């Protein structure tokens, strides 16, 4: 009798799958179907699969509805599958991570109703040229968004409004020429912003607001140093320790800040933070009150009122931070 009880308590052996590798790590049942030349989802996968790898197959089109029987699925890797179309029928209520990187997607489907629990979305290195209005509607749990290496030229207004929990945003290596002024509004948890290697020439006044942004990557843009750059120049001066150069394969905790990497394209690569602004209005000149948005504050000293800058102070070294997603794709 004790032996029978012991046998009942032991975990049941994993049944081998004819195509994919099945393993169990802690409470997660992981199914690896990578590099199997699959064109469709393999049949008879374990119904309690929590992590599913389908990378480097030849799926071309894929419907998330085919995964509805797998109600415990929390992570899905569909990278490098030559995907040109993703159908978003049905609902996967607990899926938290979706990797669609290195495919051929030309449009981003509306994922909110299908993936309400999504926290990490990677659509890097596809062929996106634009994003629809409301592209992220319904993704209120999203914490990491990776759009690196696409062909985006502009962003729709209110893109990130539905994602107030966002912590990491990568828009690197696109063709962006401008940014919506309120893009970061409401993103109180944002700690990493990657905008390097675009075609940006200025930053809208007030763009950063009061965000405590420990990691900003802004190099490789053709910054135009004129009077319109003064807001960005001052932000760089006040946040010099938080501006970095992206290095592939290097953990952000091991990177060294380099504010001089943000350079004027029209002034022989002069650092933007050192731009002298000759001939530009200075604080107090008539009609220049909008040049220094989010910086002025009144301060009383005796009977006089004088204007002073007030900025959030950061530690000389940013706090340790390990991206939840692989740093290879951000």
Automatic annotation (TrEMBL):
<dbReference type="GO" id="GO:0007155">
    <property type="term" value="P:cell adhesion"/>
</dbReference>
<keyword id="KW-0765">Sulfation</keyword>
<dbReference type="Pfam" id="PF01462">
    <property type="entry name" value="LRRNT"/>
</dbReference>
<dbReference type="GO" id="GO:0007596">
    <property type="term" value="P:blood coagulation"/>
</dbReference>
<protein>
    <recommendedName>
        <fullName>Platelet glycoprotein Ib alpha chain</fullName>
    </recommendedName>
</protein>
<dbReference type="Pfam" id="PF13855">
    <property type="entry name" value="LRR_8"/>
</dbReference>
<feature type="signal peptide">
    <location>
        <begin position="1"/>
        <end position="16"/>
    </location>
</feature>
<dbReference type="InterPro" id="IPR003591">
    <property type="entry name" value="Leu-rich_rpt_typical-subtyp"/>
</dbReference>
<dbReference type="InterPro" id="IPR000483">
    <property type="entry name" value="Cys-rich_flank_reg_C"/>
</dbReference>
<dbReference type="InterPro" id="IPR032675">
    <property type="entry name" value="LRR_dom_sf"/>
</dbReference>
<keyword id="KW-0597">Phosphoprotein</keyword>
<dbReference type="InterPro" id="IPR001611">
    <property type="entry name" value="Leu-rich_rpt"/>
</dbReference>
<comment type="function">
    <text>GP-Ib, a surface membrane protein of platelets, participates in the formation of platelet plugs by binding to the A1 domain of vWF, which is already bound to the subendothelium.</text>
</comment>
<keyword id="KW-0094">Blood coagulation</keyword>
<keyword id="KW-1015">Disulfide bond</keyword>
<keyword id="KW-0325">Glycoprotein</keyword>
<dbReference type="InterPro" id="IPR000372">
    <property type="entry name" value="LRRNT"/>
</dbReference>
<keyword id="KW-0433">Leucine-rich repeat</keyword>
<keyword id="KW-0732">Signal</keyword>
<keyword id="KW-0472">Membrane</keyword>
<dbReference type="GO" id="GO:0016020">
    <property type="term" value="C:membrane"/>
</dbReference>
<keyword id="KW-0677">Repeat</keyword>
<feature type="domain" description="LRRCT">
    <location>
        <begin position="221"/>
        <end position="281"/>
    </location>
</feature>
<keyword id="KW-0130">Cell adhesion</keyword>
<feature type="domain" description="LRRNT">
    <location>
        <begin position="19"/>
        <end position="51"/>
    </location>
</feature>
<keyword id="KW-1133">Transmembrane helix</keyword>
<comment type="subunit">
    <text>Two GP-Ib beta are disulfide-linked to one GP-Ib alpha. GP-IX is complexed with the GP-Ib heterodimer via a non covalent linkage. Interacts with FLNB. Interacts with FLNA (via filamin repeats 4, 9, 12, 17, 19, 21, and 23).</text>
</comment>
<keyword id="KW-0356">Hemostasis</keyword>
<dbReference type="InterPro" id="IPR050541">
    <property type="entry name" value="LRR_TM_domain-containing"/>
</dbReference>
<keyword id="KW-0812">Transmembrane</keyword>
């Amino acid at each position: 009798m004790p032996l029978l009880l012991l046998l009942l308590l032991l975990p049941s052996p994993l049944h081998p799958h004819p195509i994919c590798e099945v393993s169990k790590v802690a409470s997660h049942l992981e199914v690896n179907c990578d590099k199997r030349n699959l064109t469709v989802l393999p049949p008879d996968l374990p119904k309690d699969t929590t992590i599913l790898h389908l990378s480097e197959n030849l799926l071309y089109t894929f419907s998330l509805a085919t995964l509805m029987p797998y109600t415990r699925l929390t992570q899905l890797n569909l990278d490098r599958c030559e995907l040109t179309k993703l159908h978003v029928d049905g609902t996967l209520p607990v899926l938290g991570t979706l990797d669609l990187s290195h495919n051929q997607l030309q449009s981003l489907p509306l994922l909110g109703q299908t993936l309400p629990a999504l926290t990490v979305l990677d659509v890097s290195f596809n062929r996106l040229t634009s994003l629809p209005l409301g592209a992220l509607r319904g993704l209120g749990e999203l914490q990491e968004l990776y759009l690196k290496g696409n062909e985006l030229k502009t962003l729709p207004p209110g893109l990130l409004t539905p994602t107030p929990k966002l912590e990491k945003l990568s828009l690197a290596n696109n063709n962006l020429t401008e940014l919506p002024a309120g893009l970061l509004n409401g993103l109180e948890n944002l700690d990493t912003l990657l905008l390097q290697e675009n075609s940006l020439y200025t930053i809208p006044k007030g763009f950063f607001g009061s965000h405590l942004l420990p990691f900003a990557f802004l190099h490789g843009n053709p910054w135009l140093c004129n009077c319109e750059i003064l807001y960005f120049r001052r932000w760089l001066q006040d946040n010099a320790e938080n501006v970095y150069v992206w290095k592939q394969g290097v953990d952000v905790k091991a990177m060294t800040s380099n504010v001089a990497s943000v350079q004027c394209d029209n002034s022989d690569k002069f650092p933007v933070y050192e731009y002298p602004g000759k001939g530009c209005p200075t604080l107090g000149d008539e009609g220049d009150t909008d040049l220094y948005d989010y910086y002025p504050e009144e301060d009383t000293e005796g009977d006089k009122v004088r204007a002073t800058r007030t900025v959030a102070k950061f530690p000389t070294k940013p706090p340790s931070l390990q991206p939840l997603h692989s740093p290879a794709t951000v």
